[in-house]
Amino acid sequence: MTDSKRRRRIMAVSALLGGVLVLSACNDSKSDGQGATGDGGGKSQAQVDEAAAKKASQAQITISPKDGSNNASINNAAQVTVKKGTLSSVSMRTADGTEVAGQISPDKTTWKPSVQLERATTYKVAATAQDTEGRAAHENASFTTVSPANSFIGNFTPEAGSTVGVGMPVSINFDKAITDKAAVQKGITVSSSSGQQVVGHWFGANRLDFRPEKYWQAGSTVTLKLALDGVQGAQGVYGVQQKTVQFHIGRNQVSFVDAKSKTMKVTQDGKVIKTIPISAGAPEHKTYQGQMVISEKFKETRMNGATVGFTDDDGKGEYDIKDVPHAMRLSSSGTFIHGNYWGSPSVFGSVNTSHGCVGLQDKKGANDPNTPASWFYNHSLIGDVVVVANTGDKTIQPDNGLNGWNLDWSQWQAGSAV
Questions:
Q1: Closest CA to 291 of 358, 189, 386, 164
Q2: Strands (DSSP E) along 21-169, which ranges?
């Protein structure tokens, strides 16, 4: 064999052996069973993971509601908390990018929004926390709040902070029909500083009123607590309200209208402070009888007979007075006690001429403070009681206005769901 052929053969064998050695280095590394490689130069995946874990933050962030949640509460469901660390930043935004105000607690372990959330809205939360070594941890979540179709709200009266008369019930009107009345009623508490027992009474599926057996005690404070957040009022329909409000009871004023004598006696604490001549409903339009509560006050308002069923042959209202002075509502169906400037002064105290309201002598424009109507208006509160008698008509229905006082105590209690 020539020298050149011998050299080429040796080079080919060397190349082949080199390839085998390379393949062996890639494919023939074996573990010793303890996580170390056979050649001592590599690390197992477990070792790699362990090393990475040692470098990761120990802070554990939790976002509520959970990512992907639907029908979340608009009140107190949203919250970010951290264990083994402190929060450094939290961002909460709506899907369109509007930021929601919130605050991290003084110890930096909790974040909550400082405003009530909106219904049917998707929120995105991004949180960052640090552990004691300063290592950062991150967490993100998205959730959607309960929709109007799946929630109910109770509109209540009287207003928070108001001062009302002794006959003012707490009246709550729900925007959805309630089928689980007991669950909803249990989520509502009404109490008085007077210690009077207060009981709820349902009028149909949408209205719940609360009152004591007797009128509220003058000077007392009434507290309404709504703990309806998450309470199921009907199939798939949940409450969202969580609030506490108070209102105050003023002096005890009850006025007694006698349609037979055509007078009204205004009493405070049981003593007559003024007698006012009135004109009640005419024989063909008698005024309801019973205990009625003033629910609204208007210095001037329009009264059109067509709105309450008094129409002429052409379908127009039998009357349409655009500036009725000193009007105070006694029923939902249109009964008022109000000023009357169009009637002769001789009518009051002598003849019943109205379409069912109680009229008091007044002046056009409602600016004369010396008229009987002006005096009564200025001395009356929403929630004052007007008791009407001797009209010859039936007693007003207890749900026609805020007039549940026309049920005796046993009847009232029978309307409670708890």
A1: 386
A2: 60-64, 79-83, 86-94, 102-104, 110-113, 122-130, 136-144, 151-152, 154-157, 163-164
pLDDT digits (tens, 9 = 90+) for 354-411: 989 999 999 999 999 999 999 999 999 999 999 999 999 999 999 999 999 999 999 9
* Cis bond before residue 372 (omega within 30° of 0): no
Single out the residue of 362, 364, 308 nearest to residue 335, CA to CA: 308
Domain termination residue (choose one: 129, 146, 163): 146
Residues 263 and 315 in one domain: yes
d(CA 79, CA 196): 39
Domain that holds residue 135: 60-146
Among residues 201, 326, 338, 355, the one annotated as catalytic is 338
> Catalytic residue at 26?
no
In terms of domains, do 266 and 385 share one?
yes
Q: Verify whether residue 338 is a known catalytic residue.
A: yes
Q: What is the pLDDT of residues 168-188, one digit of tens each?
A: 999 999 999 999 999 999 999
Out of 201, 326, 355, 357, pick the active-site residue: 357
Total structural domains within the chain: 3
